[in-house]
Design a protein that fits this description.
Length: about 290
């Protein structure tokens, strides 16, 4: 906090909080946000596992940290990341069991997922929105327009494509990706058991064979073993409850974007391997929406 150059600034303070143990999240995701107002006063906010409320932060006495002062070696700072081309299709089960609060919670989690993807890739990703049950339907083709993506999510409704679970989305959605290079991901949310699970598994395998990573998120009556069988690539299937949908989507978004950045040479200026993950911010203390 102050106006001097790097390594000559004032120490803001020492801050601590209490992190809770959440068995379903391993490793834990902890986000720390620093912000400052027009007077240069710094605020510290901490959130855990994509929760939407801040943890209580306590200011502690500052230790002697003079040993950490020193010259910043700029050559060791990683270059700003570039992002590989990425296409993500999110499809949501709209069968009868999704009526009411399950659909509303799924929509809220899906919009946060889209916002995180777009923010963490600097808007370089494309996202499509689809629904399925007795049939498949595209609500929004691959787009980088976050407004259109969120509008498509808002237009989803239980029963849009019937109230059963006669079809899976894999073959249908596989034709909606571009034919170019880049990362291709299909995220499937379901809350029940599908009529032909064997066919769904074969179709998920087909997607993976043509370069599409698939990941399933399930809640309610979803079968965890089946979720794992239709998940392929470098991500893990997630079985949660309705209240954990936002955290589950947040975890998947982090996994998708964490491996998408690339430097022009894949190295930092010093020649060592470099990787920088970005994450979504939220309203700072005193900031208006």
């Amino acid at each position: 906090q102050g106006t001097k150059e790097i390594c000559e600034s004032y120490v803001v303070g020492k801050f601590s909080t209490h992190l809770s143990h959440v068995p379903d999240h391993n490793p834990q995701l902890v986000r720390i946000q620093y912000s400052y107002d027009e007077n240069g006063v710094v605020s510290v906010q901490i959130r855990q596992n994509d929760e939407e409320s801040d943890l209580p932060v306590k200011e502690e006495p500052v230790d002697d940290i003079s040993q950490y002062y020193g010259e910043v070696i700029k050559e060791e700072i990683a270059e700003e990341p570039e992002y590989e081309k990425m296409e993500v299709i999110l499809t949501i089960d709209v069968s009868g069991s999704m009526d009411g609060s399950p659909m509303r919670d799924a929509q809220a989690a899906a919009k946060n997922f889209a916002k995180t993807i777009m923010k963490d890739t600097d808007g370089n990703a494309k996202i499509a929105i689809a629904v399925f049950s007795d049939d498949n339907e595209m609500k929004c083709e691959l787009s980088s327009d976050l407004y259109s993506i969120c509008n498509a999510i808002d237009r989803m409704d239980c029963g849009d494509t019937g109230y059963g679970n006669d079809v899976d989305p894999f073959r249908y959605l596989s034709s909606h990706y571009s034919t170019g290079d880049g990362k291709k991901v299909m995220v499937v949310l379901t809350d029940g058991v599908w009529c032909d699970q064997s066919e769904a598994i074969r179709n998920a395998n087909y997607c993976y064979s043509i370069g599409i990573n698939t990941v399933a998120i399930g809640f309610g009556g979803a079968d965890e073993r089946f979720l794992k069988q239709i998940t392929h690539g470098d991500m893990q299937a997630v079985k949660t409850d309705q209240s954990g949908l936002s955290a589950a989507f947040g975890s998947i978004a982090q996994e998708i974007t964490s491996s998408s950045s690339k430097g022009s040479s894949g190295k930092s200026k010093s020649g060592s391997d470099a990787k920088r993950n970005t994450t979504a911010t939220w309203l700072a203390v005193g900031e208006r929406a």
